[in-house]
Amino acid sequence: MPVDRSLIGKKTNVHVVDVEKGHIRRFAEAVGDPSPLYVDEAFAESTPFRGLIAPPTFATTLARVIPGPLADVPGFDLHRVLHGEQEYVFHRPMRPGDRYWVQQEVIDVYDRAGRSGRMTFIVIETRAKDINDLPVVTGRETIIYRQD
Amino acid sequence: MELMWETLNENMELEPLVKPPVDRVQLVKYAGASGDFNPLHTVEEFARQAGLDGVIAHGMLSMGFLGQYLRHLLGVKGDILRMKVRFQRMVKPGDVLTCRGTVRTLRKDDRIAELEVAAVNQSGDIVTAGVAEVRFF
Q1: CB half-sphere exposure, A117, CA atoms < 13 A
Q2: Dihedral, CA atoms, B100, B105, B106, B110, nearest 10 degrees?
Q3: What angle do CA B36, B117, A84 make, to 5 degrees?
Q4: Which CATH number do you get for residue B46?
Q5: pLDDT tens-digit profile of A61-80?
Q6: Contacts of A87 in chain B (CB under 8 A)
Q7: Looking at this predicted complex, what is its ipTM?
Q8: Is the CB of B71 less than 8 angstroms away from the CB of A65?
Q9: Structural domain for B89, as ranges
Q10: What is the pTM of this model?
Q11: pLDDT tens-digit map of B6-26
């Protein structure tokens, strides 16, 4: 399966992701984000959030714990990959202790001619739902694959 | 400084947030914490084989800075509903990014502000830019 429109509709299995307090702390530290909402339970309890939440881009971890939909594409070359765009729609805050069901799907593939040759844009949607099947976060990433 | 819904105006420029220089240890920490182990961000030799002159930061790290900026602006007074960015330029170790924001539209009925946000490097070049929607409680 080459990197072309035949990838559209390719899905991963649904994976279970448990959101952990220590993981959120390490993520916030790596970004250098000092908000106490991510780490200070007593403080977070006293706010309208009523408890710890995760930083918004912690959503990227939901897409990384599973083999993505491009993992088994023959000849797929990581050297040729760039991250073009990223969108997140947050239906509710992500919280430590939560369990999510996560699935990724290739929703679009299209070509563009760039300065350095043909580039293929791959749009992958990542959907995280909670145990009641309610959406938590929806991510849409555009991967740029340099074909030439 | 935290924003107050009552004092926001359309086209208002928001106070910027200057991040410390990106360094290699941060890239290793971000790789571990995010789970993005693409060696382009941590392995010098791999980056050179990919035609770069050294490792580059994860695009998502710069988006993470913008997420930090939004939370910094909101404090505990509101929530982030949506973020969308385009990665326009590479970020290298040593780069100093400044997060900037402008209020674009205010939806008074539901206390939602649409912001334009960007991470700008020390040369004034936009590296990552996009829009965010935030809702005040």
Answers
A1: 5
A2: -110
A3: 40
A4: 3.10.129.10
A5: 998 877 889 988 888 887 78
A6: 82-85
A7: 0.96
A8: no
A9: 5-136
A10: 0.95
A11: 999 999 999 999 999 999 999
Quickly count: other Cβ atoms within 10 Å of residue A142's Cβ: 18
Q: How many angstroms separate the CA atoms of B26 and B40, rounded?
A: 14
Q: Nearest chain A Cα to B33, which residue?
A: A27
d(CA A50, CA A52): 7
Strand pairing class (B126-136; B112-120): antiparallel
Beta carbons of B39 and A28 less than 8 angstroms apart? no
Q: Which residue of B has its CA nearest to A56?
A: B67
Report CB contact under 8 Å: B33, A55: no
Could you tell me if B53 lies within 8 Å of chain A, comparing CB atoms? Answer: no
Taking CA–CA distances from A92, the nearest residue in chain B reads B81
| DSSP code of residue A11 | B
Suggest the residue from A38, A57, A123, A148 to mutate for an interface test with chain B (most B CBs closer than 10 A).
Answer: A57
Number of domains chain B is built from? 1
